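Action item from last week, closing it out:
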Amino acid sequence: MKNGRPLPRVKLTLPPGWNSSDAGLPDLSFPLEMDDPEYEGELWSATKLSWRLKVRWMGNHAKYHCWVLQHENEDEPREALTFDYPHEVVDWLGKWFAHLANAKV
């Protein structure tokens, strides 16, 4: 919550084994803070074992930036993509959830 108002969220149900501190992805919104030169977007992430999926909504560019990271290689994402709409992000997350369903590391 920024400036005392809740941010709109896209509801997302995580598969077993995944953890996130946020109930859903940032929705298409243009927060007041995006005019601030230090605005860094709205971050969402989920983790499972050594894997992390990160999504940053940049309201000032109307883009979602998405990364797949493994803890030992945090500086080198396995994949980094940009999307325009939340349904594209949800599809991308679904592919990674399926790919990592049986991950042991």
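Closing note: The beta strands are 9-11, 24-26, 42-48, 51-58, 63-70, 79-83.
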